[in-house]
Design goal:
- The chain is an alpha+beta fold and 62 residues long.
- 44% of the residues lie in helices and 13% in strands.
- It has one domain (3-60).
- It has a three-stranded antiparallel β-sheet with strand order 1-2-3.
- The longest helix is centred in the middle third of the chain and has 13 residues, at 17-29.
- This is Motility associated factor glycosyltransferase family protein.
Length: 62
Amino acid sequence: MTILEKNIQALLSGVNEPLGNRLLNFIQNKTCSRFSINENLNIYDKTHNVFMYENLEEEINF
């Protein structure tokens, strides 16, 4: 499972569906003020300065 798949699976597991939907929109449209994505499909949360999988509790509480 890729990091991107882990990110989406965690966010869409019901704990934070609105953020998961915004993240999917970001991936499809490549525009978002909060997130950036690198060539390895790692998603970076610019607000909290963490990669999405590093501090899942922070994303769950967003």
